[in-house]
Amino acid sequence: MINHVVLMKFKPGVKESDIENIEKRMNDLPNTITEIQMYEFGRNLIPSERSYDFALVSLFANPEAVSRYQAHPDHLLVVEKLKNICDSIVVVDFEGSDASSLKEKIPASDLTEW
What we know:
The chain is α+β, with helices and mostly antiparallel strands and 114 residues long. The chain has a single domain (2-111), classed as 2-Layer Sandwich (Alpha-Beta Plaits). 44% of the residues lie in helices and 28% in strands. The protein has helices at residues 16-32, 63-71, 73-85, 99-105, 108-111, and strands at residues 2-10, 38-43, 54-60, 86-95. A 4-stranded antiparallel beta sheet has the order 2-3-1-4. Helix 1 (16-32) packs antiparallel against helix 3. The longest helix is centred in the first third of the chain and has 17 residues, at 16-32.
């Protein structure tokens, strides 16, 4: 599975209605883009100087599915809206690992030190 993570920092003074509009549009994407396997987004709950304002985490079967999602007209519309209200948007796509499989390979004594 490919994990697609997006962090957004809003421009100063962005209107609440603009954020709500983005949330509505983002909420609709899994209904129109079949490549999306899992999709969660939300506003930051614990603000700090280095935190971002909004995050999206989604899962896709493979890199080709991510590419189809990125090229989908509904996704492109959301991206354009985000560009208008965000100072910064960062993205990372990575192949996830099964944490339980890592636990099996790491001695229990090493896990307690984390």
